[in-house]
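Table S2 (continued). Query chain:
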Amino acid sequence: MNGMNPVVDEYIGKITKWQAETEKLREILLNCGLDEALKWGKPCYSFQKSNLFVIQGFKEYFALLFFKGSLLNDVNGILRKTGENTEVGRHIRFSGVDEIVEMEPIVKAYIYEAIEAEKAGLKVSRPNRDEMRIPEEFQQKMDEIPLLKTAFEALTPGRRRAYLLYFAQPKQTQTRVSRIEKWLPQIFNGKGLNE
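Corresponding output:
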């Protein structure tokens, strides 16, 4: 296997859960000609310096995460969104090494498809985040405080999206207003949620 990184060796040596699964997926990914690094505390695999995959264990399952999974055809219907509001990332879940071995040809096909998408320079089409629905209470607050609107619009699209999703979650107006009031200083300081 080319591209083995000793930092990932050390990581695998320390984990107690999903160790065999990590080793098997690592073998598959490296045999597909990918480079390996440890990023975000997880084994990460790239093609021509573009991050494509991360291996990660969770409590109930183990997963191969595809950074641009929404570009894939998913002919086998095995890709899942990584979160409720995820637009791009997808993952394949596994429950053990036997399942990875059984699915290896399919997994390789998905890996190669992701590599081909990267080679072709395919870009993920994202909805215009500026068109996200702004909760009425937040719009009122921006109308009252013009500097708030300026500060909010100066945030990165991801930070704006996170705030809008967070502000819109509660069903009760009072809770939405409370959330907005709490996070005003963060917005004025150019920070995202929990920064």
